[in-house]
Task: structure prediction
Amino acid sequence: MSDILQHFHFSVPPEQAGTRLDKFLADGAAELSRTRIKALVLAGQVQVSGSVCESPAHKLKGGDEISIDVPVPRDDTPIPEDIPLDIIYEDEALIVINKPVGLVVHAGAGHEDGTLVNALLHHCGDTLSGIGGVKRPGIVHRLDKDTSGLMLAAKTDRAHQALSAQLSDRSLHRLYKALVWGSPVPRKGVVEAPIGRHPSNRQKMGVVHRNGREARTQYLLTQEWGPVALVECRLETGRTHQVRVHMAHLGHPLLGDPLYGLARNGQLARLKKAGLGDVEAQRIVEFPRQALHAAEIAFIHPLSGEEMGFECPIPEDMMEIISILNQIDV
Result:
């Protein structure tokens, strides 16, 4: 049985050159909603002139040939998958894991399986089913796919409600470690700037003063090597991309950040000027992810009332960058 439910094909007439892909498809494929079209584009199901196009805002050219494959709908309920977990702590109420880089927390466009949720369902069994919602069972907070470190999940409704309440009232504490470009001044401070969807790039968040949500981050510079510094960021709120957005707002975006980072050429020159060789400098500017690690988490146990805290060392890939930076004479 084919996995494709429907197939569409369109040719772009000359007079519609410059039209956005999503708008053209919304007009041409009336049976598909704008939301569905965007999801199909982001999932790689749309080709423009033979190449996959994952940008809904892509500007079309006259004569472009567009094809869409609409897959058979999937069951929204995640299925258990035997994915190894690095478990830091576990009891009958909750589980703390060290999430590796590359593991998506819950299903979304292009990531229907192979997620942390699938792994938790396999590990915890039926006890997790439905807690916190069908699609995100047990999830109290999330990390971006390419952010490593500590995550907390609940195994009972009571634990989920209590931990979610701690997240809301800020008694659940999280500390991140990040490698950033440059050194923040002052060395210790608070970024208090509302965060919302970026007005012109829907894949990004940004500091926005209209319709932005309150966001507050404490930061502390702990080590510096001229062009690069290591900072600790303690979250007082939990907005999407909060550390990445707030550090970029300060003018010190994270190394390797594909959304909020700096142009590589200028940083390469700064690293060489600081004394690094071509190979070492290139390894730093080509770091393949945002250099961000969830290093500490603390909360009150929902059953015992005990204060609990866990730490997780900086992962190997970030430590390799720190080892290179230690060659700089500061």
